Amino acid sequence: MEKRTIELKSMSYSGYKISVDLDDMQNTCFGSLWAKIFAETKKAEKDSNQYYIGYQDYRTMTKEKRIFEYYALAPSGYFSETKPGHVTLQIEAGKYLLFKNILSNHGPAFFKRVYDYVAQNNIEVHKAFDFEFLPVDNQQSNNEAIIYVGLKLR
Hints:
CATH superfamily: Regulatory factor, effector binding domain
Number of strands: 8
Strand order of the largest sheet: 1-6-8-7-3-4-2-5
Structural class: alpha+beta
Distance between the termini: 21 Å
Order of helices and strands: EEHEEEEHEE
Radius of gyration: 15 Å
CATH architecture: Alpha-Beta Barrel
Helix content: 10-25%
Number of helices: 2
CATH topology: Multidrug-efflux Transporter 1 Regulator Bmrr, Chain A
């Protein structure tokens, strides 16, 4: 499993949030959510050192209520205007462990492998959230596009 550690600065991201039922994920249309983000930011001048971020917030999830919040986000400066339904999220500065993947292999099985690796190697991470890091030059329509799963190190 290819991985690397990066240092992120605190940064403001904007986009859209949806609730995702873990038991019904196959009926969640992540692609249309990302299509909105890419359409709204296509004219922005991109910085190759930045990422689009899929943020999974597990803080309200319980064994009985297996629902988490998913945010499809771009750097706030990429939007020319705030649209109805936009949310803003401040990404914490710190060290993040990134696990490399390709879009065609991305999904719950990859996340399980990542968390199994973290547990087996006693790596301390924040478990209330994780990220999908998509390089800004990533082409979402390309199934071989690179995507990273990011975990904040403690």
